[in-house]
Amino acid sequence: MDLARFELLYKSYQPGLVNFAFYYLKHEQDAIDTVQELFLDLWQKRDILILSDNPKSYLMTAVKNRCLNKLTRKKTPFQDTHLMKDVFIDNQTPLQTLEWKQTEASLKNLINKLPDKCREIFVLSRFEQMSYKEIASFLGISIKTVENQIGNALKMLRKQDF
Q1: Structural domain of 51
Q2: Which contiguous run of DSSP H or E holds residue 28?
Q3: How many folded domains does the chain comprise?
Q4: Which of 109, 119, 154, 110 is nearest to 139 (CA)?
Q5: Cα 76 from Cα 29, distance rounded (Å)
Q6: How many whole angstroms separate alpha carbon 74 and alpha carbon 90?
Q7: Considering 31, 52, 77, which residue would you say is the last residue of a domain?
Q8: pLDDT tens digit string along 5-41?
Q9: Could you give the CA distance from residue 47 to residue 11 in angstroms, rounded to a whole number?
Q10: Helix, strand, coil proportions of the chain in percent (round to 5)?
Q11: Res 158: pLDDT
């Protein structure tokens, strides 16, 4: 995804997504933060994420899932793994930080080697925390196909050396 498409996505969908998030979270700043985090993740995953020509459904589902996750976290405390990674990296030696970043880059490279549809399903499941049912509905495929593609992705990733 290039910068121009990203900006168009942001300008087109951000206000509506904030309103949608507010419906769940009932707090304006939480809604704004949730949508900002989604767009930040989209930009960071732009090389591995495949968005259709009409991304509204994907964005709405992603915001809904993030809102539900936030509401669940408020009930039971949970550390965000991204924050934990930042703390982990901040407390490491430069060599350990380099190794962490190399492992992360290797994983991203391996994910990029997956077939397009398999990669898309894997990213939706593992990075967007969508359920198999949500992925099947979003992509218009059966849950069994989602299960098979995730299984195939995991097998391919396990076979790789990094």
Answers
A1: 1-77
A2: helix 28-44
A3: 3
A4: 119
A5: 21
A6: 26
A7: 77
A8: 888 889 999 999 999 898 888 888 999 999 999 999 8
A9: 20
A10: 75, 0, 25
A11: 86
> Tokens at residue 55, please?
């991304």
Rg (CA), the chain: 17
DSSP secondary structure string for all residues of 76-101: S----HHHHHHHHHHTS-HHHHHHHH
Q: 3 and 57: one domain?
A: yes
Torsion from C-alpha of 14, 15, 17, 21, nearest 10 degrees: 130
Report angle CA 25, 73, 127 to the nearest 5 degrees. Answer: 90
Contacts of residue 20, defined as CB under 8 A and 6 or more positions apart, other chains included, come to: 60, 63, 64
Q: What pTM was estimated for this model as a whole?
A: 0.50
Q: pLDDT at position 25, please?
A: 85
